[in-house]
Amino acid sequence: GARALTEEESVVIRQILRCISRLNGRFGKGTIAAVLAGSNSLEIRTHRLNNTIGYGALANLPIPAINQFIKSLIKANCVTIRADGYPTIGVTALGREVIQGQRVELEIHN
Fold first, then answer.
1. Where are the beta strands (DSSP E) in 1-108?
2. Which candidate, 106, 64, 107, 72, places its Cα nearest to that of 89?
């Protein structure tokens, strides 16, 4: 079930939400995770996402762990999926409150 987050996890989810917000619903989960992990993939370089604020911010975490946080944020209604053709993600009103410091409980599978 959902649980309160550690301080470290709270920092991670705020970084994820800020990155999603900055990229303004233009990319999907995998791309967001790659940006935060500091990936040097062709897609990242093509879209110049390596110049985005937040690029590499979670380089200490493996991409699957970042993806798990994103999935948890979707489940908690902090992130929404827009599926018009390519599924992209955006930040909800609740997600914006979490960026501002609102506490949220998430289901995190370690």
1. 79-84, 86-91
2. 72
pTM equals 0.93
Residue 95 corresponds to which tokens in the numbers above? Answer: 């997600």
- pLDDT tens string, the chain, 110 residues long: the values are 888 889 999 999 999 999 999 998 899 999 999 999 999 999 999 999 999 999 999 999 999 999 999 999 999 999 999 987 889 999 999 999 999 999 888 887 65
37: three-class secondary structure by DSSP: helix
Find tokens 């053709």 and name the residue.
Answer: 85
* Nearest Cα to Cα of residue 66 among 79, 53, 77: 79
Q: Cα 101 vs. chain centroid, distance in angstroms?
A: 16
Under DSSP, the state recorded for 51 is G
